Amino acid sequence: MVEKKCQSNAKTSLCLPQRPLGHLRLLQNRDAPAKRQKALHIVSTWSSSHQLVLGQKKVHKKSNELTAIPELIEMLEIAGSVITIDAMGCQKDITSLIFKKKGDYILALKAG
Fold first, then answer.
1. Is it the case that residue 24 has pLDDT exceeding 80?
2. pTM
């Protein structure tokens, strides 16, 4: 039988097998439901080994994903997992947090 580890807070509860989360991908989502509304900007964490979204964080109006990414990483147990982030995530604070929580990372860089 596989042991399970449960994480919960006041709003949600999540139980996963006791193993690393595998490859986690931080995704940026923008969705404008109506022409006159501004786009809703959300950063999500996708677990390829579990095939599900583990967390989402709304990006505040006067901010960008640089504030949401660390908050999302703090929510998860990432030890032994590989985190992939696009060029926006190439920040010392973000990589230091991943390293501190014993995760690994792959950062996408682009020229220019």
1. no
2. 0.69
